[in-house]
Amino acid sequence: xxxxxxxxxxxxxxxxxxxxxxxxxxxxxxxxxxxxxxxxxxxxxxxxxxxxxxxxxxxxxxxxxxxxxxxxxxxxxxxxxxxxxxxxxxxxxxxxxxxxxxxxxxxxxxxxxxxxxxxxxxxxxxxxxxxxxxxxxxxxxxxxxxxxxxxxxxxxxxxxxxxxxxxxxxxxxxxxxxxxxxxxxxxxxxxxxxxxxxxxxxxxxxxxxxxxxxxxxxxxxxxxxxxxxxxxxxxxxxxxxxxxxxxxxxxxxxxxxxxxxxxx
Length: 264
Ligand SMILES: [Zn+2]
Description:
Elements: H1 9-32, H2 62-66, H3 81-100, H4 104-126, H5 131-141, H6 144-147, H7 153-178, H8 185-224, H9 237-262
Helix pairs in contact: 1-3, 1-4, 3-4, 4-5, 4-9, 5-8, 7-8, 8-9
């Protein structure tokens, strides 16, 4: 097993390129899934002039730089988000490789991370977390015990119950008391999926870290955002997704650090 300190650069590069290619597929999923379009056909094309993008211009990140961020045919600027998501996915693959080495946990957490990247950007665009990812995700990631040494089917089940059940109760209580919806149903299903993959400890960490980051983000939007002062709906999915990935990568160290400060 390749371990943390000696991650060979050529290997990291290959894994980054592989991740970026997956990221370019995630771009398609993020763009087409909410519109209920096929994610396989047609091939990549410019949303304005409909010109298909030739395969030699489908190299992640590089082709974006090559065409200087504009469609080669109609010169419409192409969102910088495409290469950003490619780099993000490539970077995640390298971080996971660095953390886990080559093996089943790397595979499992990479697929999990990809699902979270899709959820994050669809939530940012449409303020929804698609059921078609979170619900099958609960079942798929409940296989955690087969890939991750410290997980079992039982710990996945407890994770689902914590993420789904407890939050459902909180949301219901909030609704009964305040007569308004606090956390959306999509967030609850997402937390159930995160619980399936990471267990009770992971889902509690995710809620804690996600709420902390979400509150900071919410306050920042209220102060600096375009609609400052008004109550804007902040998508919670990105914060929960980020919280879950931080747990996967550095959760145990952070929990240890947190409790060592408390017990001083
Ligand atoms: Zn075009």
